Amino acid sequence: MTPGTISRELTIGQLAERSGVAPSALRFYEESGLIDSRRTGGNQRRYRRETLRRVAFIRVSQNLGIPLAEIRDALSLLPNGRTPTPEDWAAVSERWRGDLDARIHQLTQLRDHLSGCIGCGCLSLRDCALANPDDALAAKGPGARRLTGEGAAGRARDPEDEPPK
Amino acid sequence: MTPGTISRELTIGQLAERSGVAPSALRFYEESGLIDSRRTGGNQRRYRRETLRRVAFIRVSQNLGIPLAEIRDALSLLPNGRTPTPEDWAAVSERWRGDLDARIHQLTQLRDHLSGCIGCGCLSLRDCALANPDDALAAKGPGARRLTGEGAAGRARDPEDEPPK
DNA sequence: CCGATACCTCAACTTCGCTCGAAGTAGAGC
DNA sequence: GCTCTACTTCGAGCGAAGTTGAGGTATCGG
After folding, report:
1. Which pLDDT value is given to residue B111?
2. How buried is B57 (Cβ within 10 angstroms: 0-12 exposed, 13-18 middle, 19+ buried)?
3. Can you give the C-alpha Rg of chain B in angstroms?
4. A17 to chain B: which residues are within 8 Å by CB?
5. Rounded to whole angstroms, how far apart are CA atoms B26 and B19?
6. Within 7 Å: CB of B21 and strand C?
7. Rounded to whole angstroms, what are the CA distances from A2 to A49, A111, B67, B112, B138?
């Protein structure tokens, strides 16, 4: 390589270090179709620098509680071939906006009512939307728990269950 | 049973129906020390009605992304023997307050900056706190993913990775 | 008193998101 | 050319949060 031309590609170790994601996880992401790489003559992975951005997006999204499969779908909106522009990224991010809004709303409600609600009998839920994961968001909310659809924690109001005092 | 004296206890089926949580899950919670029951002569479970409230709390907390082990710890603050008062519940709920506040803050930041941030290079993170799960909350944030400590998604800023256009 | 339905235990299996180890190969520095 | 480290694949295992099924027992309504 001529001087001044630094390698614009990353090895898996470099990508791991810079993204803070373990090589094993990166291989796993690749296997799952979230990122891709080209191979050297000796079968080693080389990543475009842009992949750093992809990995960052993946971690942020995971943090949001979105499963990898869904993140993969979102990433598939990015152009292949061409390096994504800020506009491309904005379009992808837009996907989470609704989730994000709903989730913030839900958590805010929860914060403002949780303590009182549990004690008072409201958290026997039903109308109290707090614990109510019937909306799509809550179901996909935090994490790998694909609460298997169906009204989890619904209809629990119990007139006979009034706390003492 | 004398008429007028309705059974104040619930079978597992009744608890399941009213809480929206499957019997298998309730047995699992019991095994994990989150709820308890007395047994009939024939070895069947009978739950105090108060358990409904406990289960509701469990689901709400899970929804927050808190693992069962931690929920168990929180629930252990409730008095044993005596039926919890609203004040008891408030104390338990107080435990999540910090998490809740931090999480809301994080998601709000994310919402307000996500699109721009990813495209602009900021989401190569480091200073941009958005994807940064170094704080305790994010780690325990969504779900069963105990991101194994260590700065996941840190130091990824790359001056050489400027998007085109 | 009988039968239907709901319950019991226990072990095995599932999904997600990885990690670990073994056995072997590539590539960079001296 | 040699060595050392970083890489490769593959299969197994893990932890969380349950579900499923087999084989057996309670309890309730008629």
Report:
1. 83
2. buried
3. 22
4. 155
5. 10
6. no
7. 19, 59, 53, 43, 43
- Under an 8 A CB cutoff, do B86 and A123 touch? no
More confident residue, A62 or B149: A62
Q: Is the pTM of this model over 0.85?
A: no
Q: Does residue A161 contact residue B49 with C-beta atoms inside 8 Å?
A: yes
- For residues A61 and A71, the answer to whether their CB atoms sit within 8 Å is yes
Choose the closest CB to B152 out of A59, A100, A156: A59
Report the length, in residues, of chain A.
165
Residue A152: other Cβ atoms inside 10 A: 22
Residue B91 to chain A, least CA–CA distance (Å): 8
Whether the Cβ atoms of residue B89 and residue A118 lie closer than 8 Å to each other: yes
Q: Please give, one letter per residue, the 3-state secondary structure of chain B.
A: CCCCCCCCEECHHHHHHHHCCCHHHHHHHHHCCCCCCEECCCCCEEEECHHHHHHHHHHHHHHCCCCHHHHHHHHCCCCCCCCCCHHHHHHHHHHHHHHHHHHHHHHHHHHHHHHHHHHHCHHHCCCCHHHCCCCHHHHHCCCCCCCCCCCCCCCCCCCCCCCCC
The SS3 call for residue A24 is helix
